[in-house]
Amino acid sequence: MSTTEPPAPRIRAVAFDMDGLIFDTEALFHRVAVDLLAARGKQFTPEMMAAMIGRPAAVAGPALVRLAGLEESPEALLAEARERFDALIDTAVHPMPGLFTILGLLERRGIPRAVATSTRRQQALRLLGHHGLLAHFAFVLGGDEVSRGKPDPEIYRTAAGRLGVEPGAMLVLEDSPAGVSAARAAGAFVVAIPHDHSPAGGLREAHRLADRLDDPGLLALLGG
Question: What InterPro entries does the record point to (predicted)?
């Protein structure tokens, strides 16, 4: 795990992003977006992915319509995207490497944890429930439950309050630039985990970078 930051504070709670962090959903999002635009004679680009990743639907949809040069409404496009995504979600999405290792460590140490995601609450509950993960978290905070989505800090400030800790004592695990910015602005300590659709170059604002959820350096922050 790489760092150029001061030592981490004592971690008393952990907030997990979901898409691209708990699950490999960003790969499915990319696949759906490629097919969605191909059906319209368009190409899905890295610029489009960067404009959408980690952001709420109210921001991601218009960004896709604008960058792709489409004339249809963002709402209609997102509705079709959700239909395509939901048709594949139960078989094409998997937990990210190291997830069960870090969850086990947190449970043994009695460190409370929550999910704070830009995804709508009901979809997040469905996905976490399908994989038997709901019992591992104190609560799930969806993007439709806050008034301002990432990169605004509202979701992580809310998560810290519900976890009963000051933001500075909360570790946030993220994979997107928008999510990292939200966590930093909330005052949390942030570890980012890059992947193919969110490379390390866009995550420099994080306090640390880790290779995966069971990165030894990350586990050491939690007393493992």
Answer: HAD-like_sf (IPR036412), HAD-SF_hydro_IA (IPR006439), HAD_2 (IPR041492), HAD_sf (IPR023214), PGP-like_dom2 (IPR023198)
Task: Kindly name the residue from 19, 24, 175, 214 that is annotated as catalytic.
Answer: 19
Domains and CATH numbers, the chain: 2-24+94-221 (3.40.50.1000), 26-92 (1.10.150.240)
Residue 65 three-state SS: helix
pLDDT per residue as tens digits for the range 4-38: 566 788 999 999 999 999 999 988 989 999 999 99
Count Cβ atoms below 10 Å from residue 140 Cβ, excluding itself. 22
Q: Which of 17, 175, 214, 215 is catalytic?
A: 17
Give the CA distances from residue 89 to residues 25, 39, 95, 126, 144, in Å, rounded to whole numbers and listed in that order. 8, 20, 12, 10, 20
144 is catalytic: no
17 is catalytic: yes
- Rounded distance between C-alpha atoms, residue 105 and residue 148, angstroms: 32
Give the residue among 47, 11, 49, 40 at the shortest CA–CA distance from 191: 11
Q: Which two tokens stand for residue 23?
A: 């699950």
7-16: pLDDT as tens digits: 788 999 999 9
Degrees to nearest 5, angle at CA 155 with 206 and 7: 30
> Cβ(171)–Cβ(164) under 8 Å?
no
CB 32 within 8 A of CB 85: yes
Angle in degrees, CA 6, 12, 212, rounded to 5: 65
